[in-house]
Amino acid sequence: MQDIVNALVLGSIYVLISVGLTLVYGILKILHIAHAGIYTLGAFLGLTLYHLTGNFWIALFISVFLTGIAGIGVYRYFYKKVLEESRIVPLVISIGLFIVMQDLYRLIWGPYRQPFAVDFGMNNIRIGGVVITQHQVMILVITAISLVAVYMIMNHTKLGLAMRACAEDMAIAGTLGVDVEKTISVTFFIGSALAALAGILVGVYENNVYPTMGEVPSYKSFVVIVLGGFGSLYGAVLAGFILAFAETLLVAWKGFVLPRDAIAFLVMITVLMIKPEGLFRRATR
């Protein structure tokens, strides 16, 4: 049961990162590798603002908002002008941008790990032999709230309808009156905000933030969106938890001769051998 709780927490982190990446891919059909750099930016901004304000929630909301704005900047200044080019062009730009972002973080915040200790004033929850820490509770609760918010936006608002229309066919959506530019910008804002949220929660959970903390999430999120079916939100959520359970339970129960992170690619290969299209096919769901 303790392993299941740990897997749920790990899966929640994967889902927060991957849902934002899936939103971007669903509309632009590009692999936004720099999304992992946005994740790291959110963590550093959260840490800095927490030190300045002394209030975690103020730091959380401000850093999530600022990171969302940064996400819009990435679209407008790096991707917008190359959308008509081959998909390899924005991919190369994204990889280069991610590397540059990591070096910038080293210059601004230093190359070393920095503690991000936050006490939420809660007691650990004990159920039999299972312990759920205050940080795990916050990750589970915030992830649940975020997923409900994304679901409501996508299925019960005009913005969500516009996002799904652009994912189906951006040109036709524009001719029918959808403000495509605004829709893409808001999509990047939401996706980047979710990445920032994940970065902050991971920083608090692991009690450290460092410039290269986005390297592992960069390929884990890629595995998740491939497993879920490119552009599928439901698939990304399901794949995130499948990957987390596979990693946690395999290591806990049987041990593993390869590095733990290799399990992600073994799971991806296994699933794609059975369902090459991923868990879900529709790019708008």
Oligomerization category of the chains in this entry: single chain
Helix vs. strand class? mainly alpha
Per DSSP, the total helix count is 11
Weakly predicted, low-confidence segments: none
Can you give keywords for this protein?
single chain, ABC transporter involved in vitamin B12 uptake, BtuC, two-stranded antiparallel sheet, mainly alpha, 285 residues
3D structure, described in words:
This protein is mainly α and 285 residues long. The chain has a single domain (2-274), classed as ABC transporter involved in vitamin B12 uptake, BtuC. It has helices at residues 2-28, 35-53, 56-79, 88-109, 134-156, 158-168, 170-175, 180-206, 215-228, 233-254, 262-274, and strands at residues 125-127, 130-132. A two-stranded antiparallel sheet has the order 1-2. Helix 1 runs antiparallel to helix 10 and helix 9 (215-228) packs across helix 10. The chain starts with a helix and ends in an 11-residue tail after the last helix.
Short description:
By secondary structure, this protein is mostly helical. It is built from 11 helices and 2 strands. The chain starts with a helix and ends in an 11-residue tail after the last helix.
Secondary-structure blueprint:
Layout: H1 2-28, H2 35-53, H3 56-79, H4 88-109, E1 125-127, E2 130-132, H5 134-156, H6 158-168, H7 170-175, H8 180-206, H9 215-228, H10 233-254, H11 262-274
Antiparallel strand pairs: 1-2
